[in-house]
């Protein structure tokens, strides 16, 4: 686990998600590509190679994963394949090689819809809300696979993001960037996911709003939902990361704990501005 100001992260309140018992974390392997197939990370895209349609491979033997009770962060330059890696894990890319595993089960062949039913929540980088619908309608849309009473979950999301309660009858498109991202995360949480994937949740927001969003993301992780996220704000994201991946040209360039990556001279020089 990382050290620093977020050390009080526990996994005490299991109300938001569906998380089962937390296992102990798998030790990180430097440059790690080989995770054991049993007792391994909760969600993993392992040795993924593939691209869009019949186009060239974008991912090359790429591995990204998140353990129970942890936050894993993917960083890297623009066009490195971070979003492509997330889409591959969510089933939106045909992999030519590699596997995706959820809680030990091989889900490589499942559709995104089936992955949602298995407990995966995904907030994509773009078009992640319905702008013409109200905040509340967005949250209701998020719960589309549920047949039980969704109101308690909606209340939990309004407790997590109080501004959304105030604006629940407003069109989501009228909200600020940071508030829209809260809607997007809230929408994904409406399925009561077992794991949450976020692609650049702080894109285009001010540093203050970024800090607030990170605090809320940590709060979600604390409820027992592992989080796999892509972040442009690499330094700040690695501060809160249990595990970090630096991707370059679709490949794993560096892998380690957040603290290891922050301390690595090569990572600092090339990706963190020195
Ligand atoms: N739908 C698509 N069809 C074909 N090629 C794509 C598609 N989406 C992305 N690519 C290509 O895949 C490569 C990786 O893009 P990707 O969006 O995964 O990078 P990224 O690391 O998420 O970048 P950014 O930091 O800008 O979000 C780029 O060369 C991009 O042009
Ligand atoms: Mg991207």
Automatic annotation (TrEMBL):
SMART domains: AAA. SUPFAM superfamilies: P-loop containing nucleoside triphosphate hydrolases (SSF52540). Residues 1-12 have a biased composition (Basic and acidic residues). Keywords: Amino-acid transport, ATP-binding, Nucleotide-binding, Transport. It comes from the Bacteria. One of its GO terms (molecular function) is ATP binding. The keyword RNA-binding does not apply. Residues 1-38 are annotated as: Disordered. Residues 43-274 form the ABC transporter domain. InterPro entries: AAA+_ATPase, ABC_transporter-like_ATP-bd, BCAA_Transport_ATP-bd_LivF, P-loop_NTPase. The keyword Cell membrane does not apply. Belongs to the ABC transporter superfamily. This is High-affinity branched-chain amino acid transport ATP-binding protein LivF. It comes from Roseobacter fucihabitans. The lineage of its organism: Bacteria, Pseudomonadati, Pseudomonadota, Alphaproteobacteria, Rhodobacterales.
């Amino acid at each position: 686990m990382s050290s620093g100001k977020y050390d009080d992260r526990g996994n005490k309140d299991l109300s938001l998600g569906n998380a089962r018992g937390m296992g102990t974390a798998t030790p990180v392997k430097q440059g790690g590509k080989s995770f054991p197939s049993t007792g391994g990370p909760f969600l993993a895209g392992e040795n993924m190679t593939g691209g869009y349609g019949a186009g060239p491979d974008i991912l090359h033997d790429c591995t990204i994963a998140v353990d129970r009770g942890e936050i894993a962060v993917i960083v890297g330059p623009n066009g490195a394949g971070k979003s492509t890696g997330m889409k591959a894990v969510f089933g939106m890319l045909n992999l030519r090689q590699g596997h995706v595993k959820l809680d030990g089960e091989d889900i490589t062949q499942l559709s995104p819809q089936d992955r949602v039913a298995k407990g995966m929540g995904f907030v994509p980088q773009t078009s992640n809300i319905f702008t013409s619908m109200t905040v509340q309608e967005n949250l209701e849309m998020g719960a589309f696979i549920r047949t039980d009473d969704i109101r308690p979950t909606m209340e939990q999301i309004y407790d997590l993001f109080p501004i959304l309660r105030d604006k629940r009858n407003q069109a989501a498109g009228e909200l600020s960037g940071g508030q829209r991202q809260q809607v997007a995360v809230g929408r994904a949480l409406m399925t009561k996911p077992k794991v949450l994937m976020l692609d650049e949740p702080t894109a285009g927001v001010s540093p203050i709003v970024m800090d607030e969003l990170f605090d809320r993301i940590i709060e979600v992780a604390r409820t027992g939902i592992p989080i796999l996220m892509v972040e442009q704000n690499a330094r700040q994201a690695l501060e809160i990361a249990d595990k970090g991946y630096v991707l370059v040209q679709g490949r794993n360039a560096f892998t380690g704990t957040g603290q290891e990556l922050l301390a690595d001279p090569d990572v600092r020089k090339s990706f963190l501005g020195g």
